[in-house]
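Feature request disguised as a bug report, sorry. It would help if multi-protein outputs had a clear separator. Right now it looks like this:
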Amino acid sequence: MQKAWLCLLAAVVSAMISGAQAKENSVGAPGCAHENPQQCVNLALEAMGGRERLLQVKSLRLQTIGHTLLMEQSYRQAPFITAYGRGHITLDLAHQRLLKETKLTWPEADQNRSDSDITLIVGPEGGMRHTTGGDSPCSLADLDAAREMLALGPVRILLTASDAPDLHFELPESLRSTSHAVVAFTWQKTPVRVFLNSFNHLPDAVETTQEFHDFWYFWGDVQQRIYFDNFEFYQGITYPTNLVKERNGVVWSSTQALNVEFNVPIDEKAFAMDSATVKQSAASPGWNISFHTDNDTSLAPGVDLFLGPWNSTVVKQSDGIVILEAPISGSYTQGVIEKAQKLYPGIPIKAVLSTSDSWPHTGGIRLAVAQGLPIYILDLNRLLLDQMMSAPHTLDPDALANSKKSKAPHWRIVSEKEEIGSGVNRVELYPLRGASTERQYMVYFPEHHLLYASDTLALNADGSLYDPELMHEVAQAVKQANLKVDTVFAMHQGPIPWDQVVALIDKAQHS
């Protein structure tokens, strides 16, 4: 009798503990008040069509149309100019591969050159891009986006959550005035949160915090939220055909699936990739590019241009060194500074000039701030750069994040003509206030009749101007300031005669 009583007591205690745990696990979970996180995800799986039906989807083909806001460009801030894309995406879920065929319409291109065709192929070992110009390794950003789509896209997100050993509830949130249960877990070291509608249990959004390898790299820890919307019924599965991507609280892109097909045949030829190209993609350093010193071009005594994907220039003045541009990354800018100190040992760095707000152009500014250097920035760009300097970098701490002392930027605001230094290598800074150049300034070397035109000058393969409007606005600014220019260079262009540029502007105006 006593033994039976003890067994009953143990069962009651166990039930109370289980009930308490279930209550604790479901506290604040709208629509899942009596379920634990796993059971809540199971309800969501059933709402989409059921676990078994989703597991049976081995491939997926989408016909898509979408747009992306070009936040990274140095034209103007919000509202942003927009790029458009249309094409097909094939997901081989069984072998973790993606094929994306896109016709891209790029608004910044020259007339009649806005459309381009790009095919992206990604597999477990890496990926490649195919264009009319040939094949090339895809970027780390391409690899990340493809792998996220395979694991965290609409067909797989709930299955991935269900398999996560650390699945748990977080505080509920309201989306579109509707309460949502939030289940969270870790995927490949990335924290993931899924918002489940309290009424229909469907996943309405997926949120991650991570360091991206596209233009958002410079913002450190970025919160991305992808909204699932426009649900439609396909082969027993309720599928969200519209994905809206938001980063750091700002809507960035939207993609609409016009047609959805499950379990399509896989064409192995379409997924074929060159193994050497694939290896290069996986080994890419992303935006954390190192500075190379083998392309030194002397523009004048004490004025050294280092050509690369983004050009930097070292200017020796009587009282210190001026670094013209701190682009791409902290490691790149650190290399520029070290090269300047080797060229002119014992001479301090007195200033850094950052002439544009385009994100890769400002990638090394956090390093300059960490070193306490004065940085000349355009007045219109201060708000953006203040935000970039205060952006958290806990996932991959850089020099500024690792700085033991809190360092406020030493901004030198350029709102009108500024002069730096004296002697033969003195420079003058002039804001460009054109419709397409208002967030840039140019740098003039009076003694050398030399002009640095920020991010406005680039030549096409046929020798024509990439964007004649940009250089037209530079020419207007040169005329207004009454500058005598013999040679011009820029962020992506080596030195060329000014007369050649003027002729190209005139040709573009009359063609």
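(second protein starts here, but nothing in the output says so)
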Amino acid sequence: MRATTTPPRLHYAWIVAGVTFFTLLAAAGSRAAPGVMLLPLGNEFQWSRATVSSIVSINIFLYGLIGPFAAALYQRFGLRRTMMAAMALIAGGYGLSVVATHYWQFVVLWGVVVGAGSGLAATVLGAAVANRWFTQRRGLVMGLLTASAATGQLIFLPSLATVVTAHSWRGAPLVVAGAALLALPLIGWLMRDNPYDVGQRPYGEPGAAVAPITTTGNPAKRAIVVLFEAARMRDFWLLAGSFFVCGASTNGLIGTHLISAAFDCGIPEVRAASLLAAMGLLDLVGTTASGWLSDRFNCRYLLFSYYGLRGLSLLFLPAALLGSPAGLGVFAVFYGLDWIATVPPTVKLTGEVFGREKASIVFGWVVASHQVGAAFAAYGAGILRTTTGSYTLAFFSAGALCVIAALVVLPIGRARISRLSAAT
């Protein structure tokens, strides 16, 4: 008798993508929480906006710095074990913070422990899963996984703001810790490191399953080696520089300070958190669409459009905060659709320039630049608010940087295209 096999109806890559989506969604709570705790934490301990912002900036900085090393850890120890470690760190850091009473304790728990955990479950994780498990639909999957951060924001922000208003800031860390703990058994049950583990090829690749190349050695050393190789190319600095601006204008400024800025203008915290949540819903649409567009159009022109529109919306924001609700709604629509739509085309350009093998680690360093920008803006905006009494200068500065970034992205990959043309 001739043996026959029936191909599975659902490729396991989609299950892995689903688990990763849920993990990134749970981790998004750790990044949403500081925005709603900024005011009550400062009020309880009589700390200035700059002091509280310094804790958040350490968290954001480590969140980015861990990225390239996380990519190397995925290769060395596997996706599943690294993701479970990430959720354990987030749960432990936030869970213990409810008994913290000193500045240094918040620096250790929120800044270092949660920062490291969230860095292990960040955008780099989505890029690693998309590159490892998908050949076709990679841009779409990257858009969906990136959008999970926006979906997490949509879910967490209103509930966290309500908890903080009703039960003080200490309720918010417990909600985030609980979400991280819920993700742990799901990761342990369904997550797999490679398509070969389930006898398959990456989605869209024909043929029999092929064992992955085993990565040995020190993952930190590999991350540093790849950085030095990438740093010799101009495209790396263009990608990193533009993503620095991306981080400054999103996580650092809007994600950390919009609720406080709205409160300064007489807008209640819960309403401001709901505005951010609505922007998260819009970004779910915008980033998913960006992934679809990245599979079909020139990514440089997409980035030019995204950064340009974001810059214009930030220049408009001070007037929107002081004007009618309609103006703030217009800002929410334009900024929300654009929030992290830059990620899918940036991931694709990184892969095109540096190749599939190094793409995740190089993108990790690009994300590190993103978070350096976010930390810079989180702390810098707090200082500007403390010294000038408003966020206007911070919003104008971020808007101008976005316009500059729109021009910076246009030459990315051009040198590679010229070399290929010359070779043919």
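Even a blank line would do. Unrelated, but nice: The chain has one domain: 12-204+216-423.
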